[in-house]
Amino acid sequence: MQIKIRLATIKDLDIILDIYNHAIKHTTAVYSYDPYSPKMMQDWFADKKANNFPVYVSTENNEVTGFVTYGTFRLRPASQHTAEHSIYVHHKHRRKGIAKALMPFIIDIARQNKVHTLIGGIDAENEVSILFHEQFGFNKVAHIKEAGFKFDRWLDLVFMQLIL
Q1: Which DSSP letter does residue 3 get?
Q2: What is the pLDDT of residues 90-106, one digit of tens each?
Q3: Parent domain of 41
Q4: Cα–Cα distance measured from residue 73 to residue 91, given in angstroms and rounded to the nearest whole number
Q5: Which among 12, 21, 49, 75 is least buried, having the fewest CB atoms inside 10 angstroms?
Q6: CATH number of the domain within which 47 lies
Q7: How many domains does the chain have?
């Protein structure tokens, strides 16, 4: 099957919401406890559009299988050329190369949009994601101990950086 990538539309928000909420409920990829509501996802999407941040979806046979985006890393003006990216793949479509298609795509978009550096915030126990980022040239630049608490345990947060 061929993975296609296109700009996300408002019609994709239900599946993006499903993908994101699965990550909230079942993983430490998102340091949130409560699932997003449809309204929260609409606000998230509107904020991305208002700030000219890209949101793309991957599809197979016209079915959305994942999404990728980036946004503000820190709100200070001097940080405007740094962005934090996110890649999420639907749990039923993992291990198909979707993330491997989305990562170089978002890196290219970031370059075109004059982003200087991309940051990935990753739970330290997620060795798969850390190794995945290293494959694309990201370097581990910080390890923050006990930065989150979820599933009745403390979580360490790793920041990985790619200077474009």
Answers
A1: -
A2: 999 999 999 999 999 99
A3: 4-163
A4: 26
A5: 75
A6: 3.40.630.30
A7: 1
